[in-house]
């Protein structure tokens, strides 16, 4: 679904539609097992739209298995793969990124970094867009 949403951004890079060019972003991704693939997709879409990614925040999120109603009995889901059979789902076992001090610290630092760059007298959207374009 995320990829479909991001594909709608095509209108922002078609022809001279520069509405996003030179903007700054922090990408945030949570993966049930590995947050790196969504981060790569987000960063690529930002780059294609001439958005400079100033930082990434990654964390472990909860598999859909924890909420689908079949998580304890489904043998192909993430819960089963991580915890094995006979493991009941309860609040203690469901990953909660807000309790992950490392991720929350990284998110705070990324926000500060973004704010500093936005407030910098050196920040200019056109030169930032040119920087991103040359990195392509």
Describe this structure in words.
- The two termini are 26 Å apart.
- This protein has 136 residues and is of the alpha+beta class.
- The model has no long low-confidence stretch (mean pLDDT 89).
- Helix 3 links the parallel strand 1 and strand 2 (52-60).
- The protein has helices spanning 2-7, 10-13, 36-48, 78-83, 101-119, 125-135, and strands spanning 24-31, 52-60.
- It is built from six helices and two strands, in the order ααβαβααα.
- Strands 1-2 form a two-stranded parallel ribbon.
- It is elongated, with a radius of gyration of 19 Å.
Provide the spatial order of strands within the biggest beta sheet: 1-2
- First and last CA, distance: 26 Å
- What percent strand? 5-15%
Helix content: 40-55%
Morphology: elongated
The number of helical elements comes to 6
Major sheet size, sense and barrel closure: 2 strands, parallel
Beta-strand segment tally = 2
Write a brief caption for the model:
With 136 residues, the protein is α+β, with helices and mostly antiparallel strands. Helix content is 43%, strand content 12%. A two-stranded parallel ribbon has the order 1-2.
Keywords:
12% strand; 6 helices; elongated; alpha+beta
How are the elements arranged and paired?
Layout (H helix, E strand, L loop, with lengths): L1 H6 L2 H4 L10 E8 L4 H13 L3 E9 L17 H6 L17 H19 L5 H11 L1
Parallel strand pairs: 1-2
């Amino acid at each position: 679904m995320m990829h479909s949403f991001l594909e709608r951004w095509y209108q922002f890079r078609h022809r001279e539609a520069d509405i996003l060019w030179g903007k700054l972003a922090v990408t945030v991704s949570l993966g049930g097992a590995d947050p790196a693939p969504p981060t790569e997709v987000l960063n690529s879409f930002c780059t294609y739209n001439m958005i400079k990614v100033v930082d990434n925040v990654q964390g472990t999120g909860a598999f859909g298995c924890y909420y689908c109603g079949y998580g304890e009995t489904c043998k192909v889901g993430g819960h089963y793969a991580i915890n094995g059979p006979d493991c009941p789902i309860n609040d203690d076992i469901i990953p909660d990124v807000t309790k992950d001090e490392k991720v929350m610290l990284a998110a705070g630092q990324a926000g500060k970094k973004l704010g500093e760059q936005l407030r910098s007298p050196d920040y200019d959207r056109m030169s930032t867009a040119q920087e991103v374009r040359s990195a392509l």
